[in-house]
Amino acid sequence: MNTIEQIIKNEPLEEIVTVFALLKAPPHLDMMIRRHNIKLIQHGELERTYTKLFKTGVLANGKKGLCIKGPNWKAPKFFLEKRYT
Question: Staple partner for 65: which of 11, 25, 52, 76, CB 3.0–4.6 Å?
């Protein structure tokens, strides 16, 4: 199992989006998550998560479809602990 797959299978969607939205545009993030755990975003959860993270200031609009860190961005635990490196 590769690192991305482990993260998607083991971490909450909100934490996945908090990190990967900085690196991938929504359509690519959607495909990446669907490839490894389709149940995680089966009923529009990805869109709701993006909306929540924007409203709470965790993410902000960036360039070329990517997000940037918002004023309330904090690295998720799995990221800080370097759990998957």
Answer: 25
Give me the phi and psi of 21, to 5 degrees please. Answer: -65, -20
1 pLDDT higher than 90: no
DSSP letter (8 states) at residue 23: T
Q: Is the pLDDT of residue 34 over 80?
A: yes
Q: Cβ-count burial of 14 within 10 angstroms (0-12 exposed, 13-18 middle, 19+ buried)?
A: middle
> DSSP states of 33-61 as a string?
HHHHHGGGGTTSHHHHHHHHHHHTTSEEE
Question: Would you say 67 and 57 are in contact if contact means Cβ atoms under 8 Å apart?
Answer: no
Closest CA to 13 of 23, 1, 42, 62: 42
**Whether the predicted pLDDT of 5 surpasses 80:** yes
